């Protein structure tokens, strides 16, 4: 399988089976360098499974996928070293403060101690949590914890940032702060994979997106292309129409 030089991710016919259940049913997509690519779908659509295969956490049951031109089957460690992953669930270490969480996480990437400290201080400033640098993460608000998790996923200066529902459950102010960080990542030339249930978020941030349901891609394109194809309206209206129809057809 060859990969276009601008394609950070290329998936062809990828499949994931759990026994007799097929969570992902032969989907194709690619992610280009420097774009924010959206992965949308209702709960149980196959989004998380797809992301976990891309991040070399789950093995493929079929098809082929490359990340940075490398097969996820053959080079998982090399791929993981260049990823920054912010999961939906909070997995910060409750025994440490904000800055220490970043420093400890840097050890997974063998970042030298002095460099890890420098990067951690820069990220603490960038994400405006200087006054919370020594605070245990369990004492932070939900919005601050999400900002710290996004900051942590940048400690290894990744080439591809994977954000899984980064604004789920956040208040409007915290949500917009995360959106600004995504825009800054794009401005810096980073590639972003965003999974979200927030259609406004997808429409504002994503250069291209796919909508998946029941393990299949049911729509793909830029937000503007998808809106035009379906006669305008909002992305949320189109999403509800497409996913509702798919469920009835099954």
The number of helices is: 9
Helix/strand order, N-terminal first:
EEEHEEHEHHHEHEHEEHH
Widest sheet: strand order?
6-7-8-3-9-10
Helical percentage = 25-40%
Rounded mean pLDDT score: 92
Query: How far do the termini sit from each other?
Result: 32 Å
Poorly predicted regions are 246-250
The secondary-structure class comes to alpha/beta
Overall strand count: 10
Give structural notes:
The chain is an alpha/beta fold and 250 residues long. The chain has nine helices and ten strands. The chain has a domain at 92-156. It has helices at 47-54, 76-80, 98-106, 113-126, 142-152, 172-187, 199-205, 223-229, 235-249, and strands at 7-18, 21-32, 36-40, 62-67, 70-71, 83-86, 160-164, 191-196, 208-213, 216-221. Helix 3 (98-106) crosses helix 4 and helix 5 packs parallel to helix 6. The longest helix is centred in the last third of the chain and has 16 residues, at 172-187.
How is this fold's topology laid out?
Layout: E1 7-18, E2 21-32, E3 36-40, H1 47-54, E4 62-67, E5 70-71, H2 76-80, E6 83-86, H3 98-106, H4 113-126, H5 142-152, E7 160-164, H6 172-187, E8 191-196, H7 199-205, E9 208-213, E10 216-221, H8 223-229, H9 235-249
Parallel strand pairs: 3-8, 3-9, 6-7, 7-8
Antiparallel strand pairs: 1-2, 1-4, 4-5, 9-10
Helix pairs in contact: 3-4, 5-6
């Amino acid at each position: 399988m060859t990969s276009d030089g601008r394609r950070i991710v290329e998936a062809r016919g990828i499949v994931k089976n759990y026994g007799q259940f097929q969570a992902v049913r032969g989907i194709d997509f690619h992610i280009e360098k420097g774009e924010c690519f959206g992965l949308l779908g209702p709960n149980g659509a196959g989004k998380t499974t797809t992301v976990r295969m891309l991040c070399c956490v789950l093995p493929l049951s079929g098809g082929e996928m490359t990340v940075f031109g490398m097969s996820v089957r053959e080079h998982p460690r090399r791929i993981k070293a260049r990823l920054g992953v912010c999961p939906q669930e909070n997995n910060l270490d409750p025994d440490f403060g904000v800055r220490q969480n970043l420093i400890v996480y840097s050890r997974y990437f063998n970042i030298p101690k002095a460099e890890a400290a420098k990067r951690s201080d820069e990220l603490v400033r960038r994400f405006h949590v200087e006054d919370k640098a020594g605070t245990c993460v369990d004492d932070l608000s939900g919005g601050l914890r999400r900002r710290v998790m996004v900051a942590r996923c940048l400690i290894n200066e990744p080439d591809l940032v994977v954000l899984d529902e980064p604004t789920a459950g956040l208040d409007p102010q915290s949500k917009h702060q995360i959106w600004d960080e995504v825009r800054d990542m794009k401005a810096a030339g980073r590639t972003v994979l965003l999974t979200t249930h927030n259609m406004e978020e997808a429409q504002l941030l994503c250069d291209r997106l796919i909508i998946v349901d029941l393990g299949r891609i049911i729509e793909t394109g830029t937000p503007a292309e998808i809106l035009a194809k379906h006669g305008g309206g909002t992305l949320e209206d189109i999403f509800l129409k497409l996913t509702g129809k798919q469920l009835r057809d099954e």
